[in-house]
């Protein structure tokens, strides 16, 4: 089993798009590495996990003699040691609440790797290889790929579209039509676990993939989503990967499994979690007539702490009702926005840029900037399309990483209602503006 997957990995590593189209950095989370290097880290992680899967899914244990079992356990441990070394976070090894151990990784991955098939592992390999091709060098893509309908607005959705319009990209993985559909869904949704952590989405985005799992009477497609979701963030953040991120993925995993084995749905499960998470914020919910989903996501987006309720309330109180209302419309339901780099640009990333000297006034600016940007982009999008969409903010995210936080805050500070925000984002000469199509929206900037 494993040799076949290793062959596929080597083929993918040597593909033209990997060697030429993705050999450049892209996002704040890549921390200077190219997309090619980011994906290669995932291949190495996947190789260890495929070894574990091949051991876990061998013949029944009762058929094995004792020394074989001991060897298998040693191999499991060896592969998890190898995986753990790839996310070395020794800088927090003295902080148990931050430090991710080998056992932490094993407790997360073991249940997900169990019962995976050879086909599942080929799907996973295809997803690792192709999930970030939307980050391809655009000039290279136009010369070497069919880019019909691709406007390079949101990389995850663009990746899925490129696979559909360029079947040669997925052909080496020997997947039938049903497996290809699973792979494409996973590619399109590969950011969702991170969106769950950062407040950039609702897990209802997995609705179609859950339907595929139910149709197959197998949770494996959903397991693959969680496996790849974690190795994607591990390979992007690497030394910044700490236990709170892992715990978020565990929570997401439990939520999904509970829905799969039960009779509920993902949207209801997310809403119940939001209600529980915002129980101490009832005054904010009532005063601003905002849905628990919206407040839960805003808290995550802006890294608002439980002792900052007063600051949060003040930030929302200073905003016009139409801005808060539009943010709520955008964020509350399963028909919502699914973002990448939105938190980097306008929320928690912007907040981190202030460092330890951040003031209450700065936190208010972060919260208000987040609400304004999302409300404005959503109002523009729903004037034409009332549906879920991908929201990207890669350029503003890079600006924050480059120390330009003041530009972002100052440019929207004077925009005090929804109309002024929409007019601003509709004018590409003003600074920040919106690019969009049917299911993707980008907030970008003339620096």
Give a description of the structure.
The protein has about 450 residues and is mostly helical. It has 24 helices and 4 strands. It has helices at about 1-15, 15-20, 35-55, 65-85, 100-115, 120-130, 140-145, 155-165, 175-190, 190-200, 205-215, 220-235, 245-260, 265-275, 280-290, 290-300, 310-315, 320-330, 340-345, 350-355, 360-380, 395-400, 405-415, 420-425, and strands at about 335-340, 390, 430-435, 440-445. The chain has a 4-stranded mixed β-sheet with strand order 1-2-4-3, sandwiched between helices. A hairpin with a 3-residue loop joins strand 3 (about 430-435) and strand 4 (about 440-445). Helix 1 runs parallel beside helix 6 (about 120-130), helix 3 (about 35-55) packs antiparallel against helix 4 (about 65-85) and helix 12 (about 220-235) packs antiparallel against helix 13 (about 245-260). Mean pLDDT is about 90; it is low at about 60-65.
């Amino acid at each position: 089993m494993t040799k076949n997957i290793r062959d596929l990995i080597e083929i993918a590593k040597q593909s033209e798009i990997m060697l030429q189209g993705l050999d450049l950095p892209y996002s704040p989370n890549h921390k200077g590495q190219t997309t090619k290097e980011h994906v290669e880290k995932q291949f190495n992680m996947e190789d260890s996990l495929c070894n574990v899967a091949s051991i876990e899914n061998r013949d029944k244990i009762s058929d094995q003699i004792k020394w074989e079992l001991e060897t298998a356990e040693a191999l499991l441990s060896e592969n998890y040691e190898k995986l753990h070394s790839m996310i070395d976070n020794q800088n927090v090894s003295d902080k148990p609440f931050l430090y991710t151990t080998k056992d932490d990784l094993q407790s997360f991955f073991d249940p997900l790797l169990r019962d995976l098939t050879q086909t599942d592992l080929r799907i996973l390999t295809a997803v690792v290889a192709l999930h970030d091709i939307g980050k391809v060098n655009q000039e290279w893509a136009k010369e070497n790929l069919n880019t019909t309908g691709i406007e390079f607005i949101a990389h995850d959705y663009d990746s899925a579209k490129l696979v559909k319009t360029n079947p040669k990209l997925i052909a080496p993985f020997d997947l039938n039509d049903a497996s290809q559909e699973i792979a494409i869904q996973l590619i399109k949704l590969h950011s969702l676990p991170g969106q769950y952590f950062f407040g950039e989405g609702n897990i209802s985005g997995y609705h179609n993939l859950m339907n595929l799992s139910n149709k197959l009477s197998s949770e494996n497609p959903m397991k693959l989503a969680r496996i790849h979701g974690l190795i994607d963030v591990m390979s992007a953040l690497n030394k910044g990967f700490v236990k709170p991120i892992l715990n978020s993925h565990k929570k997401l995993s439990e939520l999904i499994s509970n829905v799969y084995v039960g009779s509920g749905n993902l949207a209801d499960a997310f809403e119940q979690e939001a209600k529980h998470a915002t129980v101490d914020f009832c005054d904010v919910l009532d005063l601003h007539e905002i849905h628990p989903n919206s407040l839960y996501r805003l808290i995550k987006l802006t890294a608002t702490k439980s002792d900052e309720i007063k600051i949060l309330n003040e930030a929302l109180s200073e905003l016009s009702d139409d801005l808060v209302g539009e943010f709520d419309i955008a964020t509350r339901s399963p028909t919502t926005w699914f973002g990448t780099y939105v938190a980097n640009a306008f929320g928690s990333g912007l907040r981190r840029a202030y460092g330890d000297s951040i003031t209450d006034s700065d936190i208010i600016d972060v919260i208000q900037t987040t609400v304004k940007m999302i409300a404005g982009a959503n109002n523009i999008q729903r004037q034409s399309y009332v549906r879920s969409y991908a929201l990207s903010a890669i350029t503003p995210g890079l600006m924050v990483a480059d120390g330009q936080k003041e530009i972002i805050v100052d440019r929207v500070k004077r925009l005090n209602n929804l109309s002024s925000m929409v007019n601003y984002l509709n004018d590409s000469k003003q600074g920040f503006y919106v690019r969009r199509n049917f299911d993707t929206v980008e907030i970008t900037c003339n620096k």
